[in-house]
Structure formats: structure tokens, C-alpha cells
Amino acid sequence: MSLPSARSSASTPPHAPRTLDAGLLLVVLAVAFESMAVGTVLPRVAEDLRGLPLYGWASSAFLLSSLFGAVAFGALSDRRGLARGAALCLAVFALGLLVAGLAPSMLVFVLGRLVQGFGAGGLGALPFAVISTRYPEASRAPMLAAVSGAWLLPALVGPLVASLIADAWSWRAVFWGLIPALALVAPLCVLPLRGGERAAPGTAERPLLWPALGLTLAAGALVEGLRREDALSLPLTLLGVAGVLLASRPLFPAGMWRLAPGLPAMLMVRGWAAFGLLGANAFLPLALHELRGLSLTQAGWLLSVGGATWTLGSWAQAGLERRLGPGSRPARIRLGMVGVSVGLLVTALAALGELPLGAAYAGWFVAAFGMGVGYNSNSLLALLSVGADASGRLSGQLANIEVLMTAVAAGVGGALLARAQPLSRAFALAFLVTLLGSLVTWVAAARVGKRGG
């Protein structure tokens, strides 16, 4: 999916307001903190609201609605301007935080997550739309680097801070606490975006709205079909699979699901790597809490290790790029994906009690480091495989396949927790599914350097 339409650099101001710089970065920090923090407190939420059967939906609802939210933001911004799009997404995100924080039941909490996701999807696309339309060309690369860097601090401390807040006060404070921050950030971000040109109606995201909505609903049907145990289970699952395949056709390159060489394989490396690592991340804190007796703070430390080592892996791949050159990218992708699978296996065995608990930290370190090396090498190879006129669409495809596959993985894990007994068996199956998904990247990674035909 492409980003909202960009005007030529000739129509951009010579310097964006400093308030816009601050507003954009603070919005990214808020969304990043929420994204990194929630996984840590979900075990407490499920316990407090007696909502284990809907555990997977707490992640899947957020992710799937964010996929559609990003596309809807693009359409609204093209038609009504970036200021209105940003204001709406901030308001919706805040409303979702409020609903989740006040939730009297797990079903209402999932609804809050659904609302949050819609707003977060638009806010995630906002920096790229703003940078491409409101910043001069010379300022775009530094601002993109700043946006990427704004994810680092939440990745490192978000899980730990969230667990400390939940232990000291309540898991609800993790959600409520962001609302005042958003109220302060909103004027900094929205007011400088008022005015400016708008794209002609229907020129950018509008044609993709229906396929994106279809993909979101189909993936939701798949997740719900896997979770249910009644007569609707099989029909919903089959309908979901068919819908995902059908809705994917206008959104992704042909041959993606069959791992066609070239760009389709690169997208599948991204998608299945997210299925493996981020899918396991969705239920790993719960597994450590239920099976190994870790507190939320201790589980938060593990997720913080993952955030730090993913960043370390990203730096390592940048160093390898400089030393070994572009020709080493396919090999780095393969090596990184092997690290993801091996790390996942060690982490799963430790979480299940087959290895010492310390092995979980070592395994997660290896998996996240491999992700940083292989995932970033794959993204670089993909972005440099298309022309500048197609880079916006490809960026959307890379983001959306990650969201889709993570949501499905979280849904599958949640379905197993809801249906399989005892919990140790459910977690073992959930880890097995994510591990098998990560192995698909080995096949896809072997095809990224080949030409599609």
C-alpha cells in the first residue's frame, strides 16, 4: 500500500516548524511505548478479567485494525488534509486507551484494543506522510532516522516500565497514563499541519480501502475460526483462508504465497519471520508467568533484552554491509533467519522447563539478534530492488505483511491457549507453530536473490 500522495519538493517549505519535529517524534514515542508495553501486562489483564480464551484477540484485534487504519488514514489525509487525519487518529487512539483501561471484561478490553489499533495504524503512517510532503528533501533522511530512533527507547524500557507500573498501581494505569501525554502532544503535531495542498480525491489510497478492509475481516474470521470449538469453527477458518488469499491479490505481488523468487520471497521472509518471533512474543510473557513463575517485571526484562539485541543486530548488519558490500545481503538474510529459528527453539524449551530458565534469555538474545541482522538486510534488499516511484507502495507492503502475519500468529497462539489442555501442552503447541513458521523463512531466504519469472 502506498503512502499518502506526496507533493513535489518544490512546494514544501524550506524548513518544517520545530514544533512539528517534536510533535511527530512524541507521537511515535507514545505509539511505540504502547506497542512494546502491552505484551508485558497482558497476563495480568487476562488473569484479572478472566479472559484467557480471548488472550490472542487482545493482540490480533489491535494489529488487524491497525492494518486498515493505516490505509484509511491515507485516504482521509488525501481528501481532507494531514491535519484532520492526524487529529482523528490521535482521538481514536486515545479513545481506545480509555476503553481498554476501563474495561470490565476481556471482551470490552479487546474492543478497546480494536479501537486503539485503528488509531495506531494511522499514527504509524503519519511520520512518513508528513516527511514526504512537509519537509524539504535535504531534511527527510535525518528526520526518518530520528523517527526510527524514537522506537529504540520504548523497545528497551517499555516492557520493564509497564511491568513496574502494573505492579505498583494497576495494569489499567499503563493505558490511562498515555492519554494526558497525547493531549499535550496533539497540538504540537496537528496545528503545524493545517493548510497545504490536498491530493485529488481517489488518487492514492482510496482504491485499496476495500481490499484492505477485506483482508482485515478475512484474517479476523480466520483467527476466530481457529479459536472456536463449535460448528462455526471450520466454516469461519475456511472462509478466512480464502478471504486472505483473495484480498491479498491487489495488495501484494503475484506469487507471494508460493514464495516466488525475488520480491515475493522477500515479503515472505518478512512475514514469516514476524510470524515466528513476534508471534511468540505475543504469548511468551504469559508462558514464563504461568509455567516458570516469573513476575511481570522479570518477563519484562526478557522482552527488553529482545528490543536491545534486535537493535544490536541492526547495527551489526550495517557494519557487515559496509565491510562485505551489497552482494552479502542474501547470505546475511539466511544467517539471520537461522538465528531466529535456533533462538526460538532454545527459548521455547526454557519456557517449557526443558532447559534452565537462563536459557530463555540466551535464546531470545540469539533470536532477536538474528532478526536484526536478517530482517534489516531483507528490507534493504527489497527497497533497493524497486524504483523510487514504487518505494512508497513497497514500504506499505512490508509493513502490512508483518502486521498480518503477526496478527495471525497471535491468533493461532491464543486459539491453542483457549482450546488445548493442560496449559503446558497449549504453550508447547503454540511455540511449535511459531517455530515451524520461522522455518518457512529458510525456504524464502534461499529465493530472495533469484529473479522472478
TrEMBL record:
Q: What is the name attached to this protein's record?
A: MFS transporter
The Major facilitator superfamily (MFS) profile domain sits at 20-449
Phylogenetic placement of the source organism: Bacteria, Thermotogati, Deinococcota, Deinococci, Deinococcales
Record InterPro entries: MFS (IPR011701), MFS_dom (IPR020846), MFS_trans_sf (IPR036259)
Transmembrane intervals: 20-42, 54-76, 88-108, 114-131, 143-162, 174-196, 208-226, 232-252, 264-288, 300-320, 332-352, 364-386, 398-420, 426-445
Lineage top rank: taxon: Bacteria
Q: Which Gene3D superfamilies match?
A: MFS general substrate transporter like domains, Multidrug resistance protein D
Alphabetical UniProt keywords: Membrane, Plasmid, Transmembrane, Transmembrane helix
Q: Identify its membrane topology class.
A: Multi-pass membrane protein
Subcellular location(s) per record: Membrane
What SUPFAM superfamilies does this protein map onto?
Answer: MFS general substrate transporter
Pfam families annotated for this entry?
Answer: MFS_1
Query: Looking at the keywords, is Protein biosynthesis present?
Result: no
